[in-house]
Amino acid sequence: MMKTSIGAALATRLATRFAPVALAAALLPLTAHAHMTWLLPNKAAFDGKEPVASFDAAVSEDLFNFERALKLETLRITAPDGKTVEAENRSTARHRESFDVKLTQDGTWRISNVSQSVMGTYKQGGETKRFRSTPATVAKDVPADAEVTAMTVMTSRQQTFVSKEEPGKVAFAPEGNGLELLPLGPVTDLSHGDRTTFRLMLDGKPAADVQLKLVREGNRYRYKFGEVELKSDAKGEFTVEWTEPGRYFIGASTGPARGPNAPAGSREAPVQRASVSATFEVLPK
User: Fold this and answer.
1) In this structure, what is the dihedral angle of CA atoms 129, 130, 135, 139, given to the nearest 10 degrees?
2) In the chain, what is the greatest distance between 2 CA atoms, to the nearest angstrom?
3) Taking the CA atoms of the chain, what radius of gyration do you get in angstroms?
4) For 88-116, what is the mean pLDDT?
5) Per-residue H/E/C for 229-271
6) Domain range holding 138?
7) What's the whole-model pTM score?
8) In the beta sheet, which residues pair with residue 240?
């Protein structure tokens, strides 16, 4: 593909539907001190005629302590019948973004926030410049006649789940771009001692042999971070044992390992990276 058409082609391909992210052999590890992005409901299980679930979106190093707002880009709210609905009462503050969802159907709801960025460097007129863009604006932000020396496409997803009355059958279809978690059983009526199996997906297909981190809330108040390492099997599946009550974070990321010999990517073949986080509430038995 000619350089003059790559930016427009990338924008067209990604603006309407996120580009598939190739399954990477290496994992980008989540470190104990890395900032985490998350969606958090005020609780996981609701009852009543038409309860309203409230959600906060933030970025923090101390899990579930609001440090700065997470920008909500493509918010996808999937009702138990598989249809999508719109959020209500969206607001932005310094430390969080928030919204409400009216739970009009019994069963389990999936809430996802998906974003995609394009970043890298290019040379023009003997000068090297950095850029950070989006699929919709990359053709404008990177001159068509510039030499792109590095380009990475990053797809990020934050997930959580809530239910009204009984959780019902939990069988969500993959959203199909980047990393995502599909629960294979109820995840909104959890008690400590329960076990839950998930399937990790990448671009709608099972993601095998990917490492994940499980972290319980309260890391700010203990010396040990307390993360548990998990790994998806050949079918992309893994099982969590909820050993203590509290709110939990599960996170994973994929892409080539970073370092001196890491691929830089180009207009024609950008490096692909993806990340996912999900939050859950576990009550005492």
Assistant:
1) -10
2) 66
3) 20
4) 96
5) EEECCCCCEEEEECCCCEEEEEEEEECCCCCCCCCCCCCCCCE
6) 3-283
7) 0.84
8) 196
